[in-house]
Structure formats: structure tokens, C-alpha cells
Amino acid sequence: MGFWRTIRRVLFPPRAPLLNIASDVGEGPVIILVHGIASSAATFAHVVPQLSDNYRCISIDLLGFGDSPSPEDATFTIEEHVASIAATVRSLKLNAPFILVGHSLGSLLAARFAAMHPNQISRLILVSPPIYVPPRSIGDPIVRARVGAYMRAYEFLRLNKDFTMATADTLRRLFQLDDILDVSEHNWRAFVLSLKNCIEQQTTISDIASVRVPIDVVYGSLDQFITPGTMRIIEQMRHVTMHKVDANDHLVRKRLARRLVEVISANREVSAKAN
């Protein structure tokens, strides 16, 4: 039975589900914002109010997270996530290229989307991107050991459900991260498979290299999910501009939100011409 189900999926791939549009506010050049793993569009709560006077800001919930659907047969690969983003973008019937902003997992998906749909993007902004390469391909032993530690930690989180949920719940209550951090029965499958299939197994560096539009990378100096070695790889690419925010961790806190708004607003004239 499983064999024939697989054959049907290959011959007749299911239509990508539409994602929940959590907010659509403002007028002007379009910005689409994509949140990270175990989160929702609430990620951009400090960003959208600063932009909606000059931009149309559209925040979406990723497949399996927030109020978006979580199909029983979904495997939450980067291809499935991007297909749902693409279907949702088509449903919006936009008449001009837009700025795409992705945070954490959302930045990896945004890079793949931009690589696959170059004519739809006017600018790509990656926020706190957890970019990794296979440890065996890293020459620097310190960086190799650090990336290897991340991979083992992610595997531990996937294989220890009770620990992961309890830790996430404690962090959410301790740091008042309601709606921003959510690891629960509701999204556990999406969390585990997205972690395994999109973050642990990724081709983000090659995706970034193939993107045709300018890319801005905004990240905190205290980001606990970023390795210096991989950031050095992308900062050498000619179409990538790096923006480091002091005293900010992985989350889009007020300090990082202000810098993100500055980066977007600095390119307002270019975006307005594109739209």
C-alpha cells in the first residue's frame, strides 16, 4: 500500500496548500515576511508597525506552524515549504516584484524561493540565518567541531520530545515569548521534520550564490545559532551585504527590528521603482 501511495505522489504530486496570511497591512511596495521554525508571524511584531506606513506588509505562517495547514502526508522538506509559499504568493496576484524577508528557517526557505523564482523578487533579506555546511567539508577544526555540535544538539532535540517541549515551554514563560516560540503537539511533526529536512540538511549557500538580486543579511552579535565560519563564506559574495547588530541574539527583538527596518527603508527608492 505504501509503495502505490509513493508512486501516486510521484506521478500526481498533491497541490501545495495555501498558507495562512496572518496579516496584510499598509500600502505601497510589497514586503512578504516569513518566520522561522517553532514560531509564527508574531516573529515580526516589532517590524511591521514600523513599515506599514510606507509598505504593504504581508506576514504568513509557514506550513505546519501558526494557523497554516499541516497535511498528514507532508514531510516538510524545503521543497514542500517553498511550494506552499509559492502557491500563496500566486494567490495574492501581485503585479510587481516584492521584497522577501525570512527569519531563521524562513531565511533558508526565502533563499530557495528567490533562487527558484528570480523574477518575483526585488530584494532578499535574510534575518538570523542558521546556515551550516557538512562538518566533513570544513577545514578549520574549531568551526568543524562547532557545526558538528549543532548537528548533534538538533538531533537530540528531535529524539527527545518531552525534554524539547518542556524546555520550550519554560523559555516561553521565562522570556515572555508567547506566539514567538511554540513547540507543542500542534506542530511537533512539522518542527521535527523541518529541523531534519531543512536545517540539518540544507543547500543554502548554493541557493544564496544563485540568487540574482541583492541580498542583505541581518543578524545579532550574540546569535547562538550562527557559526562564524559559514558567515564568512556568504559575506565574500559580491551581492551580499552583512549587517551585524550588537547585543542581539537570534530573535527579532527591538534592537534588531530597528536595524531591519533601516535596511529595508534604505532601499525604498529602489523598491518603489521596481513596484
Automatic annotation (TrEMBL):
It holds the Pfam family Abhydrolase_1. Residues 29-236 form the AB hydrolase-1 domain. It comes from the Bacteria. This is AB hydrolase-1 domain-containing protein.
